[in-house]
Fold each of these.
Amino acid sequence: MMRNKINYASDLLLNDLSYTGIKERCVWNDLISFTVTDNFSVDIMHDMLEGVCKFDIGLILKLMIFDFNYFSIETLNNRIEAFNYGSLDIRSRPTLLSSENLRRQGLMSASEMLCFTRYLG
């Protein structure tokens, strides 16, 4: 269900973060020309790098490694370790992966995921 002014106000009154996903009233609503239900933007870090990329790449890697046996996790880790990231990306070099963090999709931080997705394909 898309959030609108009415269900946003109702969810605020419920005051239940785990149920509504709303922690508190957005301070931006104090602006005359802004409401969170009408004005929105994409947050690349949370939406993409810690959301879609982490979930999708984790799932794709899990399938390629464990289900289809295209390559091993050791091979992927060797490639991650040996890759030349250059002076700018070396600080965001992806962490090495384990079977456990692939299964629970605890892959990488946002900066590591950006670096990983940039060079993966």
Amino acid sequence: MKKTLFALTAFAAALLITSCQDGGYGDMDHVSAETAYGNNEITEQNVVTLADVEKAFPEFNNSSYRGCSKAIEQDMKLRLRVTANDIGGNIYNYIACEDATSNDGKSVLIYVYSGGLFSYLPVGQEILVDLKGLSVGTNGNQQAISTPYMTSSGNTYPKNMPFWVWQKHFRIMGYNPEAVKTQEFTVDQFKNEVSKNIANLAGRVVTIKNAEITDADGEKKWAPKSDLASTNDFNVERAIVGLPKSTIFISTSTSAKFSNDVMPAGKVDITALVVRYGNKCQLTLRTANDVKPAVNR
């Protein structure tokens, strides 16, 4: 009996050691993701850029306020690199990606009706997306890829792609987090860029240097439910000193993992995803670590 108990204990310990060796972050997870998610039959043929897609489909032009193409019939693929995901609970049912073919920073949102996207689509993950059968378009001038979604008023735009559809339309490629570079701005530079060329920022991850959050006093939190503007809201908006809150603000969900963290006071460097809605620039933090003490004060 003692020998049997010892053998079972040793076996359990071996399983525990094996499961903990990788820690959930290393190559084994990536290898598993390659086989567990996506469609490995997608080939790197007819790969185009986001700019090419914009030329081919007027609904995808950033001058279009809201629209959605029919299901794409052409054999077109995009090689994209993930720049933002739902790991912090502040991004919901979508990822942001930059064009890994053109490497010009042009970016797009991909809407998938599923949580836990970060588990197989970490920042830096490159994917091959098969556009045939999907739709492209805009909502509030923000370019997106998904399936058509119709509102109660009859407006249609890309949103809520079913998980099973998504799995057929992408392939996991290389993983290169070092390739993800944010575009840096001072507060004044960012203000001017939003005013002159918000289309260029939409969908990108940017860093605003030496910024200061207006409400940060060492006690106020990012997004407690008590700070919601109305019962119909889910996000709390925070202003940045020197930027007009009417058009540029940090938007944090009350469901974010850091919603009840205290906002850092003083000069900080803010890294955030730019989500465009008309002339408004919504800055979305991926995690609490996207706001750090300013490097050059």
